[in-house]
Every structure is written in structure tokens, then in C-alpha cells.
Amino acid sequence: MGIKKIVVDRTRKNFIKLCNDADIPRMRDEVYPSDVQAVRDLAYIKDGKVEHRFDLYFPEGVSFENMEKKRLILDIHGGGYVYGLKEINMCFNMHVARRTRLPVASVNYTIFPDGSLVDMVNEIVSSIAHLVDTYGIEDIVLMGDSAGGFLAYTVWAVLSDKDIRHDYRCFTAPSVNISGIVMICPGTCDSQNYIKALETAYFPEDEKARIPVYARDLTVLTEKSKKTPPPIIAITSDKDSMHEETMYFYSSLSKKGSDIRLFDGTTKEGGHDLFHVYVVAHPDWEESDEPLRMIEELVVQ
Prior knowledge:
Distance between the termini: 52 Å
Order of helices and strands: HEEEHEHEHHEHHEHEHH
CATH architecture: 3-Layer(aba) Sandwich
Largest sheet: 8 strands, mixed
Helix content: 40-55%
Number of domains: 1
């Protein structure tokens, strides 16, 4: 094992410990909305792998059978591409389903070191194809936090442009409309060469496992795409570790005339600290109400 891989692997393990230390007690204390039904551990690829499972959350009284137009929100969890399962976003997704009155699908995907970013994007596209084929889904709002925000936007770009799809070696293009993208505290430009470090550490000889250079910066990915992005909500806050990257992305797309709306939360005296992805971790906080309202507004427009 080379020195670079040792450093990356140690950093990955330390990051996973920090995430577990935060998420395990948080999830233990969560109170789930009683008026949202969870259908859990469905498979979008029938190979028995946990990484290829998804959950569905239905607001009370809503089912695919009684929807005039079959729409849903697809949530992609964060975790720095090295951590996490769909369960870490369970409470948040139930709150989103309740607020928007739309079903929410929450997907797993294979993380580093077992999967590359190319694998992640292809798996998420496969989950969309399964939703379209199985439930007749016609319209999807992509939603993701942190690394999931990067993936959500990337999946839109891959689905919208055959050349980008080719560069990701994605041979599936489900017929579905992407009507919006919600990006919560997203990494957007790999300013610390984090993605590059993961790729070169875990897939040093596999060029097919590396995303295109232009795709590491979502503003450059936007220029590469031949289509205009759908309406976007970018959510960040003053204590968000991804604040600078989110603001860079918002500023760049705003100047290009894209329909992108920003929530930039500020920690108030006596209030909660608005840390990275606080909206996902604590959808019940008063400070989470406005970004949730913006998500609702995007979905129901």
C-alpha cells in the first residue's frame, strides 16, 4: 500500500468515526412523523446487495395508484462518498414527504473504496430506471445533501446530455422528466482535490473509474451540458463547511441566468448552530422551516 493510499485510508476511517459519533445518537432520538408511511429495503438491482436497496416514503393518503401524474422526489444521502446509508436521512425524508405531499425515494449506492464515482452515478441512474419501469414515474425532483448534492446535479447532467453520459460510461437513459434539483450544502468544485485523492488512492490504475476532469467542477459541467438545468435550490449556512463552494456555484449559475434560488442561513444568538447539513439532521428545528418551505415551493410549482 503506497503512502498516499495510507493517508487517504486513515482520513476516510477518521471521517467515518466522526460521522458515526454524530449520527448514531441523533438517529436514536429522532421522532418520525406518524402520518408518513415507510416502505423499506426494496431492491432496484436484484443482486441481494445492501448498496442497491431503496426506501419509499408516502404521505398519508398518497399512493402511486391515486396520483394523477406520477411524481416523486429522489433523495441521495451524503457522506463524503465514503460513508452513509439511506437510513441517515430517514427522518428528513419523512418530513419532506409530509411537507410536499409527494412520495420520496431514498437510495443506497456503493461508496469508496468499493465503488467509484462513476459507479455511484450509474447506480443512481439504475434506481431511476427501476422507478420508471416499476411504478411508471414520469417526473422526478433530484435531492441530495453534501456529496449527495454533487451526485444529484451530476445525475441530471448525465441524463440530459448523451456526450456526458458517454463520458460516465452510462448506457441507461430512462425516459423521465427532471423538474428540479435540491442541493443541500453541496460540494460543487472539489476545491481541495478530495475526489481526485479518492480516485487515485483506490483506483490508481483504472481510468474507467475516474470521472471526467470537467465534471469535478459543477459550473464547468454546466457549460459542458447542452441543456439548461431545471430550477435549483441551493441550501447552505454560515457554519456550513461547504459554504464557500455552495456560494461559488450559486454565483456562477446566477450569472449564467439559471433559475437557482439560495437559502443562506445565519446562526442567531440563542438559536441552534447552523452547521453542515443541519436541515437534514434536524428537520424539526425552527431554523429548518424556511429551507423546507423552499423545497415545498419548488416541488409544487
